Amino acid sequence: MKESSGTTQGLWQLLLPHKPNKSAFVYLALLVIGATGLELILPLYSSYLVDSIGSDGIETYIIIGLIVIVLTTAILEAFLGWYGGKIGHTISLNLRYSLIGRLLSCQTQSMDQEHSAELSARVINDSKEVKSVLAEDLIGLLSGVISLVAVIVIMFILDWRLTLVLVSCVLLGFIIITPIALMMNNIGQAQQTAEANLLKYVTEWLRYGKLIKSHNAASQMQHQSKQLLDASFKHEMRATKVMSLIGPIANLVLMISMIAILAFSAYWLKQGTLTLGTITAFLLYLFGLIFPLMSMAMFFSNLNKAAGAASRLSEIDAFEKEPAGSGVLIDEISRLSVENLNFIRNGKTILENVNYQFEGCGFSVLLGESGSGKSTLLSQFLGFYPDTFEQVLINNKPLSAYNLSSVRQAIAWVDQEPKLLHATVYENLTLGLTENIERDHIISILKSVGLTAWLTRIENNLDLVVSEQAHQFSGGEKQRFAIARAILRQSKVLLLDEPTSALDDINKKELLVLLRQLAIKMRVIVITHHLDIIEASDDVIEMVAGKLARKIAT
To answer: Rounded to two decimals, what is the model's pTM?
Structure first.
């Protein structure tokens, strides 16, 4: 994985592919200029209003003009806030969509050392920091820069002496605030890492709640959570400390500027070289500048925080995608084989010079102790590991010759503990299928795999939500459910990892009868270390320490 950058350059590189079209930025710029322009006109108009006060008071049209300017400014600012927020949220949406897609389609080995909850925290929490800068702070920066430049020019035209006083005070504020804002880079990155770590462990504890309770480990986990919370709290307080300094410093700059302007104004007003209207305009501009200045300070502070978060997101963006393979689709599988297959991970040899072929339909049993490489061998056929594509063959052609989606459509995998998503029964069964499947057909398939009693129990409700906490299945039912999912995919090969390990004798026999029936029309390969499931007609092989030890005669 390439090393990511914690600088703002890394942030822009991350966002560049997701930026909106140029017209969106043009509209945003026009709105910023319009709203900021009206804000700049208001003090000048107020100066004119003050200087035009006579013995008869103020003309009505001047008051009406002031009201129109104020209302128009408010409407433009509201629309600007909405439109700018929309741009920021759209960029964030596209970024999150891209990151989720990268995680779902990245190579399996990229995920081997990662925790799913920690990666989820990056996608959700870290991207929120980026979104905050784009949707909330960017407008403040744009309007702040325009306001600052325009106000200084206008003030300079009104009275260059007061302008120099104000600019000196503003520069003093920036000199103080800038190093404080830069501190948010490392703080933001550390804070996001701590929160992701917290989410990782809390997710795991909730998932394995029964294990924790049965081992009386609840208090131990809660104590561990205190350490994680303290680490998160520490970084949050560091961020709070930095952010709490920016507001008071900005207010201090405002007060110093106001005192300085009032002091010099009183002197020049006494000399007759300054009018009361000009002083009024300066004071209004001064108060009007404090919000852009604070917005700019907040932007650079949050920008550095977002840059820290972006460095973590860039790590996800660097995950290598799975190869799509060629365009060749699989219609039938007459032969499944491996030739001189070697598989090494983290310096450890898991498979060594394995050669074998599964011919046509039938029932195969892959024996071996835990850690012998059985599951790793069968997972090679699903294309999880691009570096072995040339040693894995389907119909005598390497895996690289086929479209990877077609391979996974043709070969179904049923894990030792079949995985079910938090979704409806229908959605779990039709996972990955693009066409609509008739519900009567689904019910028929479920009955064919021996789930008639289970269907009765759920009242044939295919819209029932399956969740990890509400256990709607026994172990045998879950295995049958996963097999039904494979049948619906019309797979040509069925791979099963220890399908009978959690079953009693009756359920084991029923499941084996079902699998042998399926083996009449497809190749069924079962991983096990139980010899009692073997029949004379089975194709049986044994693995020992990553090597194909022997083919067992039955």
So the answer is: 0.71
